[in-house]
Amino acid sequence: MTSTAYTCKLCRRPGVAQYDETAPISDLSKWLPLLHCNHCADWLEAKNRLTAKIAQLCRIIQVGQAWHPTKPEQVRERTAKLTSAADGLEVITKAMAGAACNYFKLTNVWEQDFADLLAENPAQHPRIITDYLRRLSKMVKPRQDQFKETL
Ligand SMILES: [Zn+2]
What we know:
mainly alpha, 2 domains
């Protein structure tokens, strides 16, 4: 194994990667800028997994909102699906908040508004998630600078 220094693509912290010098890496300089540290890689995996679940629930809500049944049993079915999807959004947004706050090293901050906004604007879920995560990342900036000074 050979070690090489890299900079995490996401957090920009330096790290050391190991690779097998017998592996056919044609140009290591093209691979190094793509590497993430374990902390960032875990966060990206969780974010992608939870975003996919949110997208799935938002799609159910969109379909439910577009459905205008007249039969009482269908009205009940529609209400049950919308309620279930909204409940699911609450669970998944709590998981997203937990994963994001763990990544940003913040006290767990979950807001009902996060789930409500998604349920009310399911087609806007990519923007709502991005805005939420951007707000969290802004909360961490002063602390990140402090953290760097102590390293
Ligand atoms: Zn990183």
